[in-house]
Amino acid sequence: HAKQQGKNNYQYYAASMNAAALERLNLENQLRRALSRGELQLYYQPLVDAATLNTVSAEALMRWRHPELGMISPAQFIPIAEESGLIVAMGAWAVKEACRQLRHWQHLGLRPVPVAVNLSSLQFRHQKIDELVATTLQETGLDPSLLQVELTESAIMQAEEPSVQMLVNLKELGVGIAIDDFGTGYSSLSYLRRFPIDTLKIDRSFIKDILQDADDATITRAIISMAHSLELTVTAEGVETEGQLEFLRDNGCDKIQGYLVSAPVPAAEFVRFMQSPRGENHSAAREASF
Ligand code: C2E
Ligand code: MG
Ligand code: MG
Ligand code: MG
């Protein structure tokens, strides 16, 4: 009896404990196939000049359109991709896809704006990312200044010498380099000076309550002025309101990105955005609509 009960208990626990792991394993296996099945897609979100509201660049953000589960957000699949190592192949795909898309837009005659691709720290450890980018630029014939990369502050803090060298090589190719989610990683700007970066992106968590929280406002102002003294461009992430935009503009932030301007959208929709008055000159569109 005891044995029987023990076995049942075991099965019970095994079943409940494994549910999460099994689901994860499933997702991991499905993610493995997602690439070859064309289920991954890049969405594009415009970044606009804070003063003129002209679209000056875009960020490519990965989406997974699962055949049964529908759209799965990066918050769910990027951690799985990183823990399984799949991010290396997925990240390489993203670089190539963004370059291919940029070339396509050039053929359509769209006003060229640089596109930023997010890179995982794993790509620096397990991939010659500088060589991948160089080869892709060569194959597509794309102007290197149209490609940018984003690395999170925490990723850059873990970077060891070979990764730093790859960043230097990327910079020498003419590719722009941004630090993503800045302010969350407790790094100092003097430390970041060692890296060949062009842009700091202030994390959304500081922008969110910028009008209510005096500390967030102070930190944001300090980041902007320190970044400028190091000749870095500053982007604010997650700008959702006119008030936030006004604060950022008044305090000299260079670029803004957020739902106020546009959510990330599929490539075709991004083209429509760029061709609309909002894409060409957001401020003109605002004047027209108010
Ligand atoms: P991230 O690089 O910091 O991207 C910005 C995130 O903020 C995106 O989330 C974007 O949709 C969201 N966002 C933009 N504006 C607003 C706003 O006004 N309000 C709010 N609440 N959110 C806003 P998303 O697309 O879900 O991506 C989440 C994260 O997943 C990214 O953060 C990035 O770290 C990672 N990720 C996405 N695509 C890739 C990729 O191709 N490779 C790698 N390694 N990571 C990626
Ligand atoms: Mg990013
Ligand atoms: Mg970010
Ligand atoms: Mg983020």
TrEMBL record:
Superkingdom to which the source organism belongs: Bacteria
Sections of the chain in a coiled coil: none
Name the UniProt record assigns to this protein: Diguanylate cyclase/phosphodiesterase
Residues of the full protein shown: 538 to 827 of 827
EAL domain span: 24-278
